[in-house]
TrEMBL record:
Residues 580-606, 618-703 are annotated as: Disordered. It comes from Pipistrellus nathusii (Nathusius' pipistrelle). This is Rho GTPase-activating protein 10. InterPro entries: AH/BAR_dom_sf, BAR_dom, GRAF2_SH3, GRAF_fam, PH-like_dom_sf, PH_domain, PH_GRAF, Rho_GTPase_activation_prot. Residues 265-372 form the PH domain. Keywords: Coiled coil, GTPase activation, SH3 domain.
Length: 780
């Protein structure tokens, strides 16, 4: 049962039971007061803890922002650049989240702490003051009554009457005060229900608003997360391929290190101990130097270096050689020694000691001393041994037979070209194909004797057995360069130009092969071989450096990108002629293209939160591309050309270890066994590049933290409308987003209209519709 009501009539009786009921109300208010006081304390602790958490999160975000990955080599792939930038994006995400957390902490103070403090001070505090008055008047009233009743009846009547009046007045004042106190007690009991709960409701509303805003941030972040997952998957696949190549090279060098010395500008180089003579009492000492010698100039460099002192490098010395003489053990109590006479210091000879007799002979040979060997100190680049495979009529027959069989029997086989055949069967099929007599008799299209994986492995083995890779040693470096830099359009143009510099037979065979691979990628929904997967398989097959080094292997990922570009742009590269001159950067600097933004962002501009707009998804009506059903599935995880198609990234089923041979082209198979077998993203609008933004003199507008996308313009400021008309390009532009158009100066656009993207137009060029920067064109 709750508190009993306090009747006003009881104030006049002031019975013991009335006093008990008043006391019960007072105890309840005191309990409420203590609870609110403790709650305010806990609320302040919560705010302090929230601020501490926010400070720790911000510190974490700053650490993410300040770290930068280093990479091996001279360039990164687009995937690696996205991964590098991801730490900064994570930092921005946390920063925005913490801004909302700080807003929540401030709202706790305003919506919870201050109202409760006000209620406790103004309402509960007022009741306490009323209680003090009530207790004081109670004491005064009953003390006066006791005193009055003790008056002697013998007093004068006038004196007694005056005392009676005084007592009655005091009793009336006490009754009035009692009535007010009882009214206040009951009022505060009812008031506390909403005065206390309403701030709590505001507090929870603010907290749930914060979590809702975090949820909204996460939804917007999800697009970026999906793109980053594809970047990571691509990088992991390339890592697996690179690692297998590095391990293979390491094992070759381990077995025969002499045959894998790198070509050097020096005739001889390596460590030698050089005798340094000291004054008579101290004798001499031997100091290790790294020595380099150029025979043509007879120039000898030596630098003292001690590994055991943390790699301390001393001051180097340079001199010109006069002659070199072998030292025998009868003249010096050390082995493997020889003397070197300095040309510009007559009579000065240095005694040096090699690590072994063999190394001493090599140094003597290089320095022109006695007992010179017939072989060179440094191995020249050793070409790969030639196999029986040749780029001739038989080679074209082998290629066409294999391709025809694959397209007839196995175009939809999962893991096509990644699943490898049994080694013995592959070698036997390749031998039959390379024999003129048996090649014509083989019917690969209708014979069940040869599995599709055996045919694909034989085709790859033939290409790897060519004396020179199909894309040649000479142009290897030229093909790698555009894959390391530039926009997607410039990469395609550069590789288009280089393909037409290949020897005619090489270009013809590459044409046949890439046409086939394009067909394979068009069936990637069934065979899971996206453009990126085919790049991993055929990058090392079609391109390889003349010298095997770790640095060359680190460029393997760029070879994959070159193959991706060939597949994705087959029609342009092989069916059209390139420009007569090599692609060059645009000489004229156009103005900045306006930043891109999506409609989704503008829908939430009223929320007090910085919503990330990732510019990754165009809604219906924005996309100039066909629907998913009409679009062949190519490689969303390809970095060469960001095509907005449905992407499937899957760990392919591992090969049967009892029946499959190791193949460097499927280096990621083992890794796929430890990962979930299938990760599928069905996001048809996920370009990897951002908005078109060539270099320009005017400063770029301030962009939001995520993927350089600005806040949405207010809904009450629509862009200036452009009715359907023509426009001419006054600056060139290379698209960096699948929904944008690339064009040269003078290009004429049809059906130009205002886009919902501020600062952009929509138009049609050569049958393709897309976005155009408004300040790049002149309306006609």
């Amino acid at each position: 049962m709750g508190l009993q009501p306090l009747e006003f009539s009881d104030c006049y009786l002031d019975s013991p039971w009335f006093r008990e009921r008043v006391r019960a109300h007072e105890v309840e208010l005191e309990r409420t007061n203590k609870f609110i006081k403790e709650l305010i304390k806990d609320g302040k602790n919560l705010i302090a803890a929230t601020k501490s958490l926010s400070a720790a999160q911000r510190k974490f975000a700053h650490s993410l922002r300040d770290f930068k990955f280093e990479f091996i080599g001279d360039a990164e792939t687009d995937d690696e650049r996205c991964i590098d930038a991801s730490l900064r994006e994570f930092s921005n995400f946390l920063k925005n989240l913490e801004e909302q957390r700080e807003i929540m902490a401030l709202s706790v103070t305003e919506t919870l702490i201050k109202p409760l403090e006000k209620f406790r001070k103004e309402q509960l505090g007022a009741v306490k003051e009323e209680k003090k008055k009530f207790d004081k008047e109670t004491e005064k009233n009953y003390s006066l009554i006791d005193k009055h009743l003790n008056l002697s009846a013998k007093k004068k009547d006038s004196h007694l009457q005056e005392a009676d009046v005084q007592v009655e007045q005091n009793r009336q004042h006490f009754y009035e005060l009692s009535l007010e106190y009882v009214c206040k007690l009951q009022e505060i009991q009812e008031r506390k229900k909403f005065e206390f709960v309403e701030p709590m409701l505001s507090f929870f509303q603010g907290m749930f608003t914060f979590y809702h805003q975090g949820h909204e941030l996460a939804k917007d972040f999800n697009h970026y997360k999906m793109e980053l997952q594809i970047n990571i998957q691509n990088t992991r696949n390339r890592f697996e391929g690179t690692r297998s190549e590095v391990e293979e090279l390491m094992n070759k060098i381990r077995q025969n290190p002499k045959d894998h010395k790198r070509a050097s500008q020096f005739t001889a180089e390596g460590y030698l101990y050089v005798q340094e003579k000291r004054p008579a009492p101290f004798g001499s000492s031997w100091v290790k130097h790294y020595c380099m010698y150029r025979k043509a100039a007879k120039k000898f460099n030596m630098i003292p270096f001690e590994h055991r002192s943390g790699g301390k490098l001393g001051d180097g010395e340079v001199f010109f050689l006069r002659e070199c003489t072998k030292r025998h053990t009868d003249s010096i109590d050390r082995r493997f020694c020889f003397d070197v006479e300095v040309a510009d210091r007559p009579g000065v000879a240095l005694t040096m000691q090699a690590f072994s007799e063999e190394e001493r002979k090599q140094w003597l040979e290089a320095l022109g001393g006695k007992e010179a060997l017939l072989h060179s100190f440094n191995r020249a680049i050793v070409p790969r041994p030639e196999g029986s495979a040749q780029l001739d009529k038989m080679g074209f027959t082998i290629l066409k037979k294999c391709i025809s069989a694959v397209e007839t029997r196995g175009i939809n086989d999962q893991g096509l070209y990644r699943v490898v055949g049994v080694s013995s069967k592959v070698q036997r099929l390749l031998s039959l194909l390379m024999d003129v007599k048996t090649c014509n008799e083989l019917d690969l299209e209708n014979s069940s004797e040869w599995e599709v994986k055996t045919i694909t492995s034989a085709l790859k083995q033939y290409l790897r057995s060519l004396p020179e890779p199909l894309m040649t040693y000479e142009l290897h470096g030229d093909f790698i360069v555009p894959a390391k830099s530039g926009s997607p359009e410039s990469r395609v143009n550069a590789i288009h130009f280089l393909v037409h510099k290949l020897p005619e037979k090489n270009k013809e065979m590459l044409d046949i092969l890439v046409k086939h691979l394009t067909n394979v990628s068009n069936h990637s929904k069934q065979n899971l071989m996206t453009v990126a997967n085919l790049g991993v398989v055929f990058g090392p097959t079609l391109m390889r450096p003349q010298e095997e080094t770790v640095a060359a292997i680190m460029d393997l990922k760029f070879q994959n990108i070159v193959v991706e570009i060939l597949i994705e742009n087959y029609e342009k590269i092989f069916r059209t002629l390139p420009d007569a001159t090599p692609p060059e950067s645009v000489s004229q600097s156009p103005p900045n293209a306006p930043p891109r933004q999506s409609k989704r962002q503008g829908q939430r501009t009223k929320r007090p939160v910085a919503v990330y707009n990732l510019c990754l998804q165009l809604e219906d009506g924005d996309s100039p591309n066909p629907s998913k059903e009409d679009t062949p599935t190519s490689s969303l995880d390809s970095l060469s050309s960001p095509s907005p198609t449905t992407a499937t990234v899957q760990g392919l089923p591992g090969p049967d270890r009892n029946h499959l041979v190791a193949d460097g082209d499927w280096a990621s198979t083992a890794a796929s066994q430890t990962r979930p077998p299938m990760v599928q993203w069905l996001n048809p609008q996920s370009p990897t590049a951002l908005s078109c933004s060539p270099a320009a003199t005017p400063p770029s507008p301030k962009l939001s933290p995520f993927l350089s996308c600005p806040p949405a313009a207010p809904a009450d400021k629509p862009p200036e409308s452009v009715t359907s008309r023509k426009a001419r390009a006054v600056y060139p532009c290379e698209a960096e987003h699948s929904s944008e158009l690339s064009f040269e100066i003078g290009a004429i656009f049809e059906d130009v209209q205002t886009s919902r993207e501020p600062g952009w137009l929509e138009g049609t060029l050569n049958g393709k519709r897309g976005l155009i920067p408004q300040n790049y064109v002149k309306l006609l």
